Recover the amino acids of this structure.
């Protein structure tokens, strides 16, 4: 029998999960839950239902794992503990500083209901976290580096769009190649914010807007841009659509460490991602962990888990025997 | 209380484990067991004993995890099941084709004795296997590539040394940059053996040996060299000592995969290692899994495990709370 998946929230991430489920023959999409009027939402999977969020409780026995595709700012802190009362749930909560609190909330709810909740699944947090953790455990004497990009930052693009005179914008975060190379040479440099990433902005102005003023406002915006070397390009709406409609991303996790009786040997562990679609890749990770949630639940486990708590074999559709034979 | 480690076999790997234990404050090296006369073996850790392998049973209650540092060809297939009767054990068994059989032997022994045995720990098998497995679970529609090097292959160096007229030799396995780049571009090429790696040999001849004949013998050696583009350099003994006494290694695991409703998006996952000392890095991985073995045993688990079966958090000295706060 297939693992029956529900999706709550049908934006870029929800659609990504729908596509990922299609690629995994041991899963099927059962229903999509939306806050919009279901008659206005058209999904890709012909066999799945589209329902109002308010109806989700009726699906309690028809869904094995509910994947929460809302945002981290306001949706997930409320939704994940709430729906963990009814379903095994997975989210991609990515506000790093608030993870301990979110973990505690989901853990309490899931333990009470006897469900599994897996939080902060994706690539960062997610695969990048895993790689930081493995590398730290292996090389205790070393330094960590995470670089993001080249990729579109939704938050930074939004911040530009809020400036008066801006019609639309896309912002790319770009790792500084020289910094990456220094780390790869084993130099363990101390890097400032400015030395790690640059920011490149493509901006469409409203008619009559003052380009110089907009550029100044972007470059001096605290937190978002003022600590970075930022480049601003003004382009037409057609150019933005034609050249910048994708949502690529990626990045690098490195750990440089020393071993030997007198720390005489250097080692570099590097993990990198180059993604055409940030939400689709995130969705693929989530769906693999949905399989894990289903299996952990079958074993009677409950409570909140993160990628650190789950043995890798749970993610794979292959048996332990096949994994040892083919991939070990 | 520290995790008490025993080492069986004191070659490059055993010494590497000794160094790695020193870097982990929650562990201590208790004893080294050797087939040589203990009075002839001098170790680095002042507080540890050096004993005969035949005495190992006396240490049953004084060692928490015994790390087996023998070779995969003849030592480990016998030793790991044998010592799993007395201790929680870890090995770095790396004959990929014989892993299923070795797993079954260790599993039977460890289940009977109520011990944990973790096999095939290191970087390949080990960290490379983990990365192949995670990447396969995340991108089910894709292609895998593993490249090794640049690094010293012990087996190939030994094969050259067995040729008449060769006094000493070192062989480097080198990934073909063009093949790596094609994979990184998302081309999913089908690569022959020759297209993936080249082999570079540094050879010291015996006096009066025929260089042309030795070169021919190397380049045509079946399995080892005949399927590769091989370069042979003849150098002096001093040059070999000066420039080629290290045992560096490393490599790359890549998975290139597609997502999207119509497979329209490409993704690349890449994991790479650049290691000054192959045995010391392998040892670091083993020691992290020794911590996992200790904890799994405390939970009452028994039998044979591989890196696929162990949740990442078990490897780290940090608590779950700290991991979530700092590394997630």
């Amino acid at each position: 029998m297939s693992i029956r998946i529900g999706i709550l929230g049908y934006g870029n991430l929800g659609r990504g999960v729908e596509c990922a489920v299609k690629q995994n023959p041991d899963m099927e999409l059962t229903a999509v839950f939306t806050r919009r009027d279901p008659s206005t939402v058209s999904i890709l999977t012909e066999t799945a239902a589209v329902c109002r969020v308010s109806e989700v409780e009726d699906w309690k026995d028809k869904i094995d794992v509910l994947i929460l595709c809302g945002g981290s700012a306001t949706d997930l802190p409320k939704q994940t503990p709430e729906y963990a009362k009814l379903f095994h749930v997975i989210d991609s909560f990515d506000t790093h500083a608030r993870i301990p609190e979110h973990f505690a909330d989901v853990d309490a709810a899931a333990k009470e209901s006897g469900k599994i909740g897996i939080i902060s699944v994706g690539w960062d947090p997610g695969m990048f976290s895993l790689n930081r953790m493995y590398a730290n455990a292996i090389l205790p004497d070393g330094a960590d580096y995470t670089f993001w990009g080249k990729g579109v930052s939704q938050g930074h693009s939004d911040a530009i769009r809020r400036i008066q005179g801006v019609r639309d914008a896309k912002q790319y975060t770009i790792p500084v190649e020289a910094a990456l190379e220094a780390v790869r040479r084993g130099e363990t440099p101390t890097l400032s914010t400015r030395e790690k990433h640059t920011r490149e902005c493509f901006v469409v102005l409203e008619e009559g807007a003052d380009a110089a003023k907009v550029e100044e406002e972007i470059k001096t915006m605290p937190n978002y841009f003022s600590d970075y070397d930022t480049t601003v390009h003004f382009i037409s709406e057609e150019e933005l659509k034609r050249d910048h409609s994708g949502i690529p991303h990626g990045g690098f996790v490195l750990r440089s460490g020393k071993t030997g009786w007198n720390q005489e040997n250097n080692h570099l562990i590097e993990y990198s991602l180059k993604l055409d679609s940030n939400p689709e890749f995130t969705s693929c990770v989530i769906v693999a962990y949905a399989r894990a949630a289903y299996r952990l639940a079958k074993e009677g486990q409950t409570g909140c888990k993160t990628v650190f708590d789950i043995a890798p074999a749970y993610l794979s559709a292959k048996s332990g025997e096949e994994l040892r034979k083919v991939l070990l």
